Amino acid sequence: MAKLGEQLLQPELGWMRYDDTNSNIEYINMKKPKESSAYKGGYHHEEDKDINSIVRFNFIGDKIRIIGVLSRLCGAGNIEVILDGKHIGNFGQYNNSTIYQVLNYELNNLPFREHFIQLCRLGSESFYIDAIDINEDGELKPYNPDLNKFLIKQKSDYYSIKSEFYKNGNYVPIKELRDKDILTQNDFKNYGVNNINTIFETINTRSVKGIKKGELGEGKYFEFNLNNDFMSMSEVR
User: Fold this and answer.
1) CB–CB of 19/40 below 8 Å?
2) Alpha carbon distance 109, 100 (integer Å)
3) Closest CA to 128 of 164, 163, 160, 103
4) pTM for the whole thing?
5) Strands (E), the chain
6) Cα angle at 110 between 108 and 112, to 5 degrees?
7) 29 φ, ψ to 5°?
8) pLDDT tens readout for residues 119-174
């Protein structure tokens, strides 16, 4: 089994390789020069070092490998991995000598389903993407973060856990969906959330009473008393 940082010239048993030229892979601030040592003669890397670069796509499967380059031009951990909207980790491609077709990053034991992923270059160091390995019975697809949207139904009301529906310490029903028997795709797109697990997260709120101090043009201004839970800028280290 291949290890991180080692050359992996061909996909291992149970994996399928997609070249970086695959039309399902979307690049932002990336270009493709020719390089005979790369997989199929080329790779993508950043075009403008002063602008963050992004590689993104969807895939069906439960595992993924990123094939790239090791080089002294790269950073030690400047590539952020965002899977299904969540920060998963970082990886780097730094090495004293240049090595092509390297296993840079790997994720395993994911739920076997469609995932959306972004690889984001942070900082000015280089980033190389040469190929993507996923399940041999999987599929590479265009980037689409709107895979599944969730709403909550209670009696004849539908609820969303988006922040705009959280008022006075409670979630309020979506007026536009009240008494609807069948929801449309646009209903889920407009009001739904990607991550159903956020239902179980605790939202910490605190009421702060302001003292009216006068008028300010067409509005009003207030004075708020901040307790000792707040730090001054001079206290921050």
Assistant:
1) yes
2) 26
3) 103
4) 0.67
5) 15-19, 26-28, 30-31, 44-46, 53-61, 64-70, 79-83, 86-91, 99-107, 113-121, 128-129, 131-135, 139-141, 152-154, 157-159, 166-167, 170-171, 210-216, 219-224
6) 120
7) 55, 45
8) 999 989 999 999 999 999 999 999 998 877 788 888 888 888 788 888 888 888 89
